[in-house]
Amino acid sequence: MVPPVVQSATFFGGLPDDPHELRYNRYGNNPTQVSLAHKLAALEGAEAALALSSGMAAISLVLLALARQGDHVLSSSLLYGATRTFMEKELPRRGVEVSFVDPRSPRSWRHAIRPSTRALYLEVPVNPTLRIPDPTPVGQLGLDRGIPLVVDATFATPMNLRPLEHGADVVVHSATKYMGGHSDLTAGVVAGARPLVDEVTALMHLYGSAIDPHTAWLLDRGLRTLPVRMEAHNRGATELARRLQGVPGIAEVIHPSLPEHPDHALASELMDGPGGMLGVVLEGGDRVAEEVVSRLALMAVAPSLGGVETLVSLPHLTSHRAMSQAAREESGIPSGFIRISVGLEEPADLEADIRQALASRGG
Ligand SMILES: Cc1ncc(COP(=O)(O)O)c(C=O)c1O
């Protein structure tokens, strides 16, 4: 009933009349890696998929596969911090120009496309602001010009959003988050058409970023409960969002389930669930947020997200620390912003924890 973990780095083969392909873990064709890749493709509705050693391995290798020296990448400006750094620092070092578009004004994509544009890039939902840029018009624009759209759907997982059904050509994930689901592995996913996945696989051989078989096995195990976990995360975050609205000390609660969320209507249309991530903006700014978060008792303060336990992080100290305060504000991350990855605990207990942290600060 349980697929075995094939904990072997190499396999018999390599003679002249050998009909089999050479199997080696760095090539990603260990049986455990292969069976995981098939499941990932099925989940995304993709022709092919590949598991890698991290989300950043997936993102960087897809971009390196699509863009060469002299090419241009057009990306949403609302990105996970390391993705932004890869675009701003690493791609230009390799002669690839990158420009950014505010996805909140969809028309700007058309004007920013160049003859040398080789990839369009979007994060849906955006970490940590939970904006939901619509992939459909961007995908259509790319389709008209033969430029693939890459979507990072880490916050959604295929349970809440399958970008290939909405105009994307390639999906990437940090499987470290919900797909693994237990905060005990680091992995990434690329899914899309076979030729592109093959190109990423060829780069993976050279950069050495294959997933290791034990991690592949753990990820496979996580996937078996992905639907029930995502349903619980969707439900828990929706309830906590409602409970936190109007709590003294909280200036704003951000969750796509709330009617006042700027993308609420689109999220309901596009996605099968609003997700387990929540944004809370505290009155008093980042210093107050640091103090309140340090007084939490049930929720753990830690980077990362998507595990069964509730994790809280302050983007100005973690995922978006490389940005200036002004750049964070411009991206929709005001001072006082707290990111909550809502786990499987009772929402009432999570609400009580936040209330006591806010109150003990005042007392
Ligand atoms: C949206 C998003 N994409 C990519 C990554 C990178 O993933 P990893 O840490 O697995 O490399 C993260 C990590 O937080 C993320 O939140």
What is this structure's SSE topology?
Layout lengths: L30 H14 L3 E5 L2 H12 L5 E5 L4 H13 L3 E5 L6 H5 L4 E7 L11 H11 L3 E4 L4 H4 L9 E5 L13 E5 L1 H14 L5 H12 L1 H19 L5 E5 L9 H7 L6 E6 L2 H10 L5 E2 L9 E3 L11 H6 L6 E5 L5 H16 L1
Parallel strand pairs: 2-3, 2-4, 4-5, 5-6, 10-11
Antiparallel strand pairs: 1-7, 6-7, 8-9, 9-12, 11-12
Helix pairs in contact: 1-8, 2-3, 2-7, 9-13, 11-13
The structure holds pyridoxal-5'-phosphate.
Pyridoxal-5'-phosphate (PLP) binds next to helix 2.
Terminal-residue CA separation: 55 Å
Q: For the largest beta sheet, what order do the strands appear in spatially? A: 1-7-6-5-4-2-3
Strand proportion, as a percent range, falls in 15-25%
CATH topology term of the largest domain: Aspartate Aminotransferase, domain 2
Biggest sheet overview: 7 strands, mixed
Ligand identities: pyridoxal-5'-phosphate
Note poorly predicted spans. none
* Total number of distinct structural domains: 2
Q: Approximately how much helix is present in the residues?
A: 25-40%
